[in-house]
Amino acid sequence: MSPDPISRGTARHAVWDDVCDAYHLVDRTDLGVVEEAVPSGAQGRPHQHARSREFFYVLAGEATIALGPQEVRVEEGSGVEVPAGTWHQVRNEGEDELRLLVVSSPRVADSGPRQSPRPFARDRSGLVVGSHLRRTRRGDLKDVLSFEQEPETQPFLGQGGREWHERALADPDMEHWVLVDRLDRVVAFGILAGLFRPDIVEIRRMVVAPEGRGQGLGRLLLRQLLEQALASSEVSRVWLDVSADNTGARSLYRSMGFQERPTPAEVTLLEDGVYMEWSGQAPTLAR
Ligand SMILES: CC(C)(COP(=O)(O)OP(=O)(O)OC[C@H]1O[C@@H](n2cnc3c(N)ncnc32)[C@H](O)[C@@H]1OP(=O)(O)O)[C@@H](O)C(=O)NCCC(=O)NCCS
């Protein structure tokens, strides 16, 4: 029996680094062949593989590949091999989409089946591309406070201020996160709370820099906070409290699978707060 041809349409699809489509054409432990689509301006994270060798072949566009201290420009129809143990990073500094064939042996594992029908960052702001979550440091609080204190934002938030955030940073029951762009500038923040409870986590607040709103950062932040909240295998529910008249935020939460539910007896909401809970499955994290 002859094998069925594999195409992007039939291959396992994943999203890498939140922006790149990856189609796993050959997906065996001894060999991986992945077709990747990297949008203009996007870049992977610098990394190395202890055992795997990789070959990056450019199908369309132009790749900039950092290999240890060197940088190579790889044009359409050519490729480079990356030996095991070499730090490398792929960037698309061109204006067109970059399409790559990435061959690895043994196969490089991706970060799991974070499947998405298509990455939501495409065609959105350059800010979304390359922005990622990291833990908040004390030096970030200046930005955090300026986002929070902005007059249009204040009515939607409960207590805040420097002392509140410093307590949150030190509280083992909470995780304080910032979303930073590729230059490590803070563009948004969010807090997870109630981490001592095994099954359910609260997103305590999330705020995008006022000048960055409406560009997809809120959605990226929420998705990454959800992924953090669900990182523990026991957690299956995530809840939050949102002001009834915060229509923008409520619409974002609904579009990401949160639903308005009756408030549990043990929960105290903001004065005009609405209880929303997410209890979907991982794929609904995608748009
Ligand atoms: C709510 C907030 C986090 C959204 O961030 P954002 O970066 O502007 O949101 P995004 O650009 O990712 O938009 C995602 C979705 O949110 C919804 N949305 C965002 N702003 C909206 C608005 N003003 N009106 C209606 N819907 C809106 C839309 O559904 C949008 O979907 P789309 O991508 O299909 O257009 C941001 O506006 C914010 O920081 N507000 C102040 C603080 C706050 O209210 N936090 C929530 C406390 S619970």
Can you walk me through this structure?
With 287 residues, the protein is mainly beta. The chain folds into two domains: 94 residues, Jelly Rolls (Sandwich), CATH 2.60.120.10; 154 residues, Aminopeptidase, CATH 3.40.630.30. The strands form three sheets. The protein has a seven-stranded mixed beta sheet with strand order 10-11-12-13-14-16-15, sandwiched between helices. A six-stranded antiparallel beta sheet has the order 1-2-3-9-4-7, with no helix packed on it. It has a three-stranded antiparallel beta sheet with strand order 6-5-8, with no helix packed on it. Strand 12 and strand 13 form a beta hairpin. It starts with 11 loop residues before the first strand and ends in a 9-residue tail after the last strand. The site of coenzyme A (COA) has 21 residues, from strand 13, helix 3 and helix 4.
